Amino acid sequence: MPRERLSVVVTRRLPEAVETRLSELFDVKLRDNDDPMTREELTAAVKEADVLVPTITDTIDGGILGHAGENLRLIANYGAGVDNIDVATARQRGILVSNTPGVLTDDTADMTMALILAVTRRIPEGLGVMQKGDWAGWAPTALLGGRVGGRRLGILGMGRIGQAVARRASAFGMQVHYHNRRRLRPEIEQELEATYWESLDQMVARMDVISINCPSTPSTFHLMNARRLKLMKPSAVIVNTSRGEVVDENALTRMIRAGEIAGAGLDVYEQGTDVNPRLRQLPNVVLLPHMGSATLEGRIEMGEKVIINIKTFEDGHRPPDQVVPAML
Ligand SMILES: O=CC(=O)O
């Protein structure tokens, strides 16, 4: 008799190719609209599924996991960050968690570079002039930005994405510095021509651009708090394509308004879509709606990772991208 297919519940619309493949392989329940699930819907989903496929906007906390049915054995997150999932509680309940690392590294690093360029070269301001029909022609002193080549870039979090940012930044002539929980192996440091700073404070105080590329965990919460932001040079800018929680958004907003920090490029926010309205009014701040990994190729590859994780689990093995609390 054929084996019964795994029951998989997906919480959001995914690219069509991914949904089609999931339907071919599993007994899958897809979302028919693109609204995030409510807590009630998530509760029903964890009661019903063998495998839950949430995305990074679904909070799978202890409360939701408390309702998980006996059969829920895997949470295969569609996303690299797992800060939306209480991984420790899932583990206590015997539920595996997996994510989708690697496939969004280059896209997120590209977007980091795009934000560095957008802020330092004032691209949105230039776009605004053109859209308003205000352009009066080339002028020697109009919309002068700063040259990125030669600037010191301090990368906070030198994992896969941080390293991909380092490679891009070097190609643009930036000097790469980094702070990380663990120092890179000497050969990688050499290849990236990156300078390691054990002290985050000392690095922050000397950089022209700070790029946040670490995950959001309890130990990275407000790593860039008001005290550290104050260490930045007034001419420096900060870019965040990781998670909003790493930066104290209100302190950052205050300091940019006061001219104590020169600008920011943000793809992520502390309170999700509830962006500090004052940030939106600043010409030297470039805001994007969390689109670091938003390429069609990347989103399909994320789906392929989810499928490989579920399939491997179904075949009785550890999902290749399993996340355990010790990794966080
Ligand atoms: O931010 C995107 C992700 O974590 O996948």
Q: What does this entry look like structurally?
A:
One of its GO terms (cellular component) is cytosol. Residues 113-292 form the D-isomer specific 2-hydroxyacid dehydrogenase NAD-binding domain. The chain has 328 residues and is an alpha/beta fold. Helices cover 35% and strands 13% of the residues. The chain contains 12 helices and 12 strands. It has helices spanning 16-25, 39-48, 62-65, 87-92, 105-120, 123-131, 160-171, 186-192, 200-206, 226-231, 249-257, 296-314; strands at residues 7-10, 27-29, 51-53, 74-76, 96-98, 152-156, 175-179, 194-196, 209-212, 237-240, 263-266, 285-287. The strands form 2 sheets. The chain has a 7-stranded parallel beta sheet with strand order 8-7-6-9-10-11-12, with helices on both faces. Strands 2-1-3-4-5 form a 5-stranded parallel beta sheet, with helices on both faces. α1 (16-25) links the parallel β1 (7-10) and β2 (27-29). The longest helix is centred in the C-terminal third of the chain and has 19 residues, at 296-314. The structure holds glyoxylic acid. Glyoxylic acid (GLV) binds at residues 56, 79-81, 104, 292-293.
